[in-house]
Amino acid sequence: MEKTFTITAAEGLHARPCTLLVQGVSAFQSNVTISYNGREANLKSIMGVMALAIPSGGKISVKAEGDDAAAAIAKVEDVIKSQGIGQ
């Protein structure tokens, strides 16, 4: 399962939103990855996500594979929208 988002936060994906996303998906058993600009990182790894240096306006793709993949994607979408990170 995969979903695409556009980062709208003025400062892009810096430490606080990265932490919120990582915390949001860490409870799920599925493998969850985030892709930006041809590079991919484990969404459960704060350092991996921050290393992608995703700016405001960046288009990201979040992919989940596993038994709770749909719930993991729904959680990512909830965090991104409710925290004003993107759409």
Automatic annotation (TrEMBL):
<dbReference type="InterPro" id="IPR002114">
    <property type="entry name" value="PTS_HPr_Ser_P_site"/>
</dbReference>
<keyword id="KW-0963">Cytoplasm</keyword>
<keyword id="KW-0598">Phosphotransferase system</keyword>
<protein>
    <submittedName>
        <fullName>HPr family phosphocarrier protein</fullName>
    </submittedName>
</protein>
<dbReference type="InterPro" id="IPR050399">
    <property type="entry name" value="HPr"/>
</dbReference>
<dbReference type="InterPro" id="IPR000032">
    <property type="entry name" value="HPr-like"/>
</dbReference>
<feature type="domain" description="HPr">
    <location>
        <begin position="1"/>
        <end position="87"/>
    </location>
</feature>
<dbReference type="InterPro" id="IPR035895">
    <property type="entry name" value="HPr-like_sf"/>
</dbReference>
<comment type="similarity">
    <text>Belongs to the HPr family.</text>
</comment>
<dbReference type="Pfam" id="PF00381">
    <property type="entry name" value="PTS-HPr"/>
</dbReference>
